[in-house]
Amino acid sequence: MSGNENGAPQAEVDTATAAYVLRLGDDALIASQRLAELAARGPQLEEDVALANIALDLLGQARVLLDYAGRLEEQLTGVLRTEDDLAFLRDERQFCNARLVELPNTDFAHTVARQLLFSGYALELYTALQGSADETVAGVAGKAVKEVAYHRDHAARWAVRLGDGTEESSERMAAALEACWPYTGELFTPDEVTRTVAAAGVGADPAGLRPGWDAFIDGVLAEAGLHRPETAQITGPAGLGGRQGVHTEHLGYLLAEMQHIHRSHPGATW
Amino acid sequence: MTTEAPAAPGAHDAQRRFDGMIAADERIEPRDWMPDGYRRTLIRQIAQHAHSEIIGMQPEGNWITRAPSLKRKAVLIAKVQDEAGHGLYLYSAAETLGVSREELLDLLHEGRQRYSSIFNYPTLTWADVGAIGWLVDGAAITNQVPLCRCSYGPYARAMVRICKEESFHQRQGFDSLYVLARGTGAQRRMAQDAVDRWYWPSLMMFGPPDAESAHSEQSMAWNIKRFTNDELRQRFVDIIVPQAEALGLTLPDPDIAWNAERGHYDFGTPDWDEFKQVLKGGGPCNRQRLEHRRRAHADGAWVREAARAHAAKRAARDTAGEAA
Amino acid sequence: MVTGPRPPAGAPTAEPRAVPPPPGPPEPAAAPAGGERRPAAPDLPAAVGAPAAEPGPYRVREQGGPGDRDRRGAAPAAPPAPPEAGRSGPGAESGAEPGGAAELAEIERIAASVPDPEMPMLTLEDLGILRAVRRGGDGRPVVEVTPTYSGCPAMDAIREDVRGRLAAHGHTGAEVRTVLSPPWSTDLITEEGRRKLAEHGIAPPTGRAPAAGAVMVPLSVRCPRCGSTRTRELSRFGSTACRALRVCDACREPFDHVKPL
């Protein structure tokens, strides 16, 4: 990964880095929260174990990233927000996760589809970030790469089982992919933040992650006997999306559940 | 399930050998001959233990999405993962005795096999999670340590492993209550309220008083059970009284008093009528726990079916590939 | 230097509150192989908690004051209690001069011997998660530990336990920090660690960790009980993140396998 070639002022790079790291943390946190809903509700015990494991890996990544984002922010604003401050005290419009990860667990196929598409992206992302000029980001990526490889593999196996299982499972899997597909474009859309961090060698250009993701997903779909959905991408109002804090209606409910107890006891330690 | 061993000439030798092993405190392994009653008792006990692990995921799993800090969330997810993993492990141990997990789950769903009745109580607040870690896991560990010497090999070895892993979670529960007890007024009250509700049910985890315990005698003769219900209950109380003091919380039992003559704490009598009610299905959450379990199983039927269908297709393709 | 989560600015750097951990179950002795004698009954955990100066809410039945109470093995509630027995007792004086290399070496020795909270038969050294012990910028010793997996919930407990044990040996100034790079790998589990895993019925990781991004499928995993390679995977994910559940078709024993990571 190259260094700060375009010569953006360091302050700009630092601001973008803090925003970028926050996005990574939010992706992992919200993805984890969705999986955590499934505790004791999996289709078989092995799946309860697997989903808990994946949720825990993602939460671990989220914690490190959010903590780091908070400390980066402190250098800019002088105010420190901890991992918990960021997770529990921000409102809907301040979260910058990709909308894909907040989609609900409508059925097991939806969970699998969401995980397949997101983990596929995360593996490309963290593989690239291993070379980040930022030590912490590179460190997180080094661990995440191994874990996300298992996550992606797990989702892919299920996608194949469901796609190439029974007629019912195939239909459900196809429907789930159609529901998730419109939110995948956002993963690979560059903006000011990603351009700045990519130029500085800290982050990865999202568009550059696409070919690897496409290849892997197409491979899984082929093996599963499924087709690429043709559903159009869904952008938020005014073309804004999760990265700009413009989410689906699902996020509000998710956050209400997640944040309620923490917010009910201001200043308390747990 | 198994049928009666044939009354062939070898059967008496096998029984003598089995009796000898029990008398010598040796381990019985899956391939050893064992009396039908011993096998049935073990299946019942191991299955009950496995069912308890998976039903136990519910009252705690309830709070994962609402955990008030990311650290607590992580610890709780790990705990629930642990329980599911233990369930898997124990079902496998039961399978060494000639039953399948499917059969055992069917028995659970039909209400014909039990799980620990403690999980029929509701987790009403965040502090309940800590109380469960401290009291319920604590009681479970007290029960399980003697089982590490159980005569049946796979179960004994499972207990050794599970005990080690559960002690981490018990510590986390204690830690959580410790922090609450030293927190805001609302947190302190929450912690005390949780302990007030979970103390008596955790005492009941050791089963009815010895005089009324149906299975105990035979289980003790077979070296499956090592100590009586009352002995274990007493041990548990002796452990938790000083721990409650360390927490700065009280136990809702006015009869707790150190008895220097006995060298143990005296404590009150659980409401055995409530216990019987809960065992019969009349506890606060019996219906709900089983319904949740049945629904998860039913909702997952199409998934399991798909996995089977896919495996069959693959196998057919592989054989076709070999034949070609 | 890459670091993991640190307490927020303004928070006390030393753990002001010492949570006396409830004692874990004692170590049931490892079972000998086949035809076996069972190990002697393990003692149940000693009671924890301060012998209160006052009797607290619980009356003493016999006459006589709190001094008559027979408490087994209580650890004090207020100061940090060392979590494990079997090592130098609390308050043992450190032999090394502060500020020297000998001090660091002793700190490393002590930290290395702390048991992992989730798999207490292994020490931090066995697991390969004790990264380094060095002198920080301000001259204070820094102990660096690295998590096995991102979500490891035991990291706080590990940091507490290391600090607690160091303090018990007179090293109260040490800082314990989480580092992420280079990432932990099962390759870092020592030979001793592998031996202990197998001894406790857990199959150690087979072969070397896969390259980043690859998922390894182990070709043969030996049953830790009977040694047969006729084992199969029941579940890729087990009770903890690093393990898979397998079963031996030869002796039918279910067992955990540490997955190469």
What's this, in brief?
The complex is a heterotrimer of chains A (270), B (324) and C (261). With 270 residues, chain A is an all-alpha fold.
Topology summary:
The complex is a heterotrimer of chains A (270), B (324) and C (261).
Chain A lengths: L9 H27 L8 H33 L5 H7 L18 H22 L5 H29 L3 H14 L11 H8 L6 H19 L25 H15 L6
Chain B lengths: L8 H15 L12 H26 L8 H26 L5 H9 L16 H22 L5 H29 L3 H20 L11 H6 L7 H19 L9 E3 L4 E3 L5 H11 L3 H14 L1 H23 L1
Antiparallel strand pairs in B: 1-2
Helix pairs in contact in B: 2-3, 3-6, 5-6, 5-7, 5-9
Chain C lengths: L58 E2 L40 H12 L11 H4 L2 E6 L5 E5 L9 H14 L6 E4 L12 H9 L2 E2 L27 E5 L7 E6 L5 E5 L3
Parallel strand pairs in C: 3-4, 5-8
Antiparallel strand pairs in C: 2-3, 6-7, 7-8
Radius of gyration of chain B over all CA atoms, rounded: 22 Å
- Supply the CATH architecture of one domain in chain C: 2-Layer Sandwich
The main pleated sheet of chain C reads as: 4 strands, mixed
Order of helices and strands of chain C: EHHEEHEHEEEE
Summed over residues and divided by their number, the pLDDT of chain B gives a mean of 93
Summed up, the helix count of chain B is 12
CA distance, first residue to last residue of chain C: 24 Å
Protein model, in words:
The complex is a heterotrimer of chains A (270), B (324) and C (261). Chain A is mainly α and 270 residues long. In chain A, 64% of the residues lie in helices and 0% in strands. Chain A has a single domain, classed as Up-down Bundle (Ferritin), CATH 1.20.1260.10. Chain A has helices at residues 10-36, 45-77, 83-89, 108-129, 135-163, 167-180, 192-199, 206-224, 250-264. In chain A, helix 5 (135-163) runs antiparallel to helix 6. Chain A is globular and about 55 Å long. With 324 residues, chain B is mostly helical. Chain B is 68% helix and 2% strand. The longest helix of chain B has 29 residues, at 153-181. Chain C is an alpha/beta fold. Chain C contains four helices and eight strands. A four-stranded mixed β-sheet of chain C has the order 5-8-7-6. The longest helix of chain C is centred in the middle third of the chain and has 14 residues, at 155-168. The radius of gyration of chain C is 22 Å and the shape is elongated. Residues 1-18, 23-57 and 59-93 of chain C have low confidence and may be disordered. Strand 1 of chain B pairs parallel with strand 1 (59-60) of chain C.
